[in-house]
Specification:
Elements (H helix, E strand, L loop, with lengths): L1 H11 L2 H24 L6 H27 L4
Amino acid sequence: MAIISASVFLVTIDVQVTLLVLVSVILVDLFTLAAAYYMGLTFNIFVAMNMNFALGMTVDYSAHMAHAYLRADPD
């Protein structure tokens, strides 16, 4: 989590937005693990790869949305 928070902070340079992105990433991880549990998936290489992909997409999307929000015109 330290690497994620450091990289998001470098992109946004805003502590509040960085914390919101981290909360988003944590919640997506929890919900994805809960969905895997309720579907009865066993933890193997395929589940681990999908979890890794989900985390990467969450960080990417959240960081881009946060960056766009900070750079938006306040009209």
